[in-house]
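BUG: 3D viewer hangs when loading the predicted structure for this chain

Environment: internal workstation, default settings.
Expected: structure renders.
Actual: progress bar stalls at 90%.

Input used:
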Amino acid sequence: MLIGLSEAECRILEFVILLKNEPLLDVAAETLGNLSPTKIPFIFSTLLDIPPTAVNEALSDKSVLCRSGLITINSSPLVYVSNKLELISDTFAEKIYLQNTDPINFFRDMVTPSSAAELNINDYAHISPAINLLKTYLEHAIETRKKGVNILLHGVPGTGKSQLTKALAQEIGCELFEISSEDSDGDPINGKRRLSAYHISQNFFRHRKVLITFEEAEDIFDDGDTVFGRKSTAQTHKAWINRTLEENTIPSIWFSNNIRYLDPAYIRRFDMILELPIPPKSQREKIIQALGNSLLDQDITKRMAESTALAPAVINRAIKVIAPLQKNG
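Structure tokens produced before the viewer hung:
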């Protein structure tokens, strides 16, 4: 496989996929009853004809299969075989079982191609020195296949973090993929599963000219609960997070609305940290003119630009509301 699974890991993954898709096999597996963790290696060894030691290695925390996030192991003391191993998403087993296509389609509900940019680099003239530096660094990282390249963009919602990344990808001439925060049904994806999708995308795209974005980084770094003492995903998987920020093969851009919650140990692992402020009035006026596409007259444009609350995303949304109204008017 593209992510470098061992033969034993491939056999176990194949078995789990069949188990999720073949009702008869699932019923047969249930006859084994609830199994303790010590019996699992023996069961998989017997069913798949592979040595118990190979099973233990394939299901260890250090295995590629588990580190990739393709499979999550149920740690309950007694559990049926069908519930011992869970796949990265509910649709993965069905898609990989039925389709013979680009592997990215197997994770379409977790990793999605980005839409086209609606702003360009010139719309960020108010921070052009930082943008030029960022663009040069990303071009170098992609060309040299530099590992561990991570950029953190932060700022209040609507300042254009996503649009900036799309514009950068367009300037560099590379594909852009996003780690989804919702599944195909619109339900939120938890931090651990998003991180698993991120790991998988790093392997699947390593031979392509790609940037990856991870919006709402707080899903990883700030999803704990101090009241009930529940640790965040980052705190629970600290070593995993550290490896993520040190060994990723695809340059990645992480978004956050603020970085106050971010541990300094993680901040030090980002190559660049860039805050996106609300653009100044002159720049807001240019963005409104560009997005308005002659829909707004000069007086309205100037009045809209007066508002300091008009971040690029807000302007873009307003223009989308105005456009059909003018056509119908």
